[in-house]
User: What shape does this take?
Amino acid sequence: MLAYIVRRLLYAIPILIGVNLITFALFFIVNTPDDMARMQLGVKRVTPEAIAQWKTERGYDRPLFVNAAAGGVAALTDTIFFQKSARMFVGDFGRAEDGRDIAREIATRMGPSLAIALPTFVLGLFVAISFALTLAFFRATAFDVWGVVLCVAAMSVSGLFYIIGGQYLFSKVWRLVPISGFGDGLDAWRFLVLPVAIGVVAGIGASTRWYRTIFLEEVSKDYVRTARAKGLPETVVFFRHILRNALIPILTGVVVVIPTLFMGSLLTESFFGIPGLGSYTIDAINAQDFAVVRSMVFIGSVLYIVGLILTDISYTLVDPRIRFQ
Amino acid sequence: MRDFQIVILWSDVLVWLLLAAGIGVGVLIARSPPLLAAWRRVSANRIGMAAAIVLLAFIGVGLLDSLHYRPALESESRQERGQERQYAVEVLSLLDLLAIPLRTKNEKTYSAPFATRLYAMETLEVPGLGTVREFPRLKYGGSHLGEREDAVFADAGLTALRVGALAMLGWLALAGAAALAVGGWQTGGAWVGGWRRIWRGETAFAWNAVLATLAVILLVALPLFALAGQYHVFGTDKVGQDVLYQILKSVRTALIIGLVTTLVMLPLAVLLGIVAGYFRGWVDDLIQYLYTVLNSIPSVLLIAAAVLMMQVVIDTHPQWFATAAERADLRLLALCFILGIMSWTSLCRLLRGETLKLRELEYIQAAQAFGVSSWRIILRHILPNLMHIVIISLVMDFSSLVLAEAVLSYVGVGVDPSMTSFGTMINNARMELGREPVVWWSLAAAFAAMFLLVLAANLFADAVRDAFDPRVA
Assistant: This one.
């Protein structure tokens, strides 16, 4: 098992290097630092001196890959690629346009992001599995058919509608919870209820339908027929046999998103004014803060790859046959 | 010397190319019995066909909006002097021509649906009374009523009823034609039998669903457009533009995002997926590495990064674009391109897995033993057996792309802000729920139109999947 995990971890390294190269190419080669400087400084103040100063302040005045002027190791380290891209591997993300340290900002904003994303994920999973199980239990009846139609309808509604509509109804018309903001400690729950509820509702259509097909696949298997033939009541067949077996593909399927929960949700956080990583990213995109966007791309990829590794591990935990392939 | 100058935007070219490709694929399908059988199953699905009709209506609007021209500027003196005609900077489409009352009848600011007065109080000078604060009368909305402002309901109802009756007549003609087609021409009175079979749902083609959907569309759309000439049926937005007009313009943007993107991702996904699965070895490793890397970057962030970069390129090269429409158009296509680069990975993975299974089957091994070349095997024996996966995923992706456009435009990395789309409409209107009194109509109309389009696409996708997926069938 340990060897397997090590192998998976080693496999992640070339992928991370690939991500790093793609972001580097996108941010420094497709667009030169001169272009970025012009964009940031605006049309009025663009003089060659201003651009040069902007680049020096941010360390973008180095060569891309090889610094011929510096000798020895510095020829490779005193470059944009090494300073800006390669150092992300050790958690050094540099500074944002407003001069703050990006790594520290990320560390403080992770908490609020998780406070929204984790309850949304757990509750959403629970609700969707319950709904899907109910639909599968009443399969091929009118209840099932209309349930699926409802799921499709719920999937077809824009996620923005749930947020805007929910905020309008619950916060503005009924004044049950604050419209936006975030509090410290236990006081935060008032701010969290609505975004979490909206997140659960918004995701319910697609996941219920997905889990329902998994349940239905399980229902048609031989061991279910055996269980019925033994004379077990339908409820026992469902909760003791089908539910447990269907949970394997469901849970291993959602493992991959668990690490990315740290990234928070772009939409929810920016609508509800939650100081998490999602709103940080949106602000960075709107302010065209390339350093922050670059860092978030990198962190997101790292978390996704961690998710992939966790998925592989969870597969081997449920099905030991995979480990030896 | 013409009255207009035809403008061919890049996205127009792609739209018509897509239409041509669609017709081409249709011809190919008609030649391949298994695919034809699958499409017959789709055409028997009532919900699927109803959804298809709605989609066709949207596509019709999109196509009308994809023929662009620049009208000539009115200047008679110049013509007399025999000078070149000047054309307006504004690029219009055939849809704009048809919707002239919607496009030109702009009010000052917000007005509610079917309103005759503005939504905001203004200080007016009334002769004899001095200054009065009141809701000013709309310039165009219900202006034909004159002083009888309270008659809006009766007037609109009457118009709707009249046009609705006309629509019903048109529909009856269509239904009669359908009955004739089902019953056959030759025997007298056969159309009655045809009609009965349609009514009872005994036809192989889901005629009853198609006719019912057509009836609803005609009964809603025609009165709506008749009324749109006299009222602002969905109200007006902040700058007084008709919301219905914006909705119609948004349709093309949504369709382009949903369809052109698939045009970008399809060749990548199909080629790389089959090659990886068929040749295995280092090719497979390389392609797998490629899509794992792309997949692991959070898609919204990569799109945001790419769009930001593209914006820098566009901003630094203003000389490339003659009109603002061309710039917005290029940005739209670039967005499609970026979305396509992002979204080929999942289809590629599916196709690779399926190819791995297929290449072990006997008929492929027989072809290999006969010495058929690899590319020929791929083209003749593997690709046709993957078509169901391709078709299913294309139809499924469409709706998610339309939804994604709204989110991306909200984040600020979607289409050009000057281009009308569901995303920009929602983005402009979302603060309006916060004002007092509430302005709800633009938001509601945008969400409703988007819901209708995406729901139709989802239901159609379900019908296609049911018909094509061998596991379900």
About this structure: Residues 102-137 of chain A form the longest helix (36 residues).
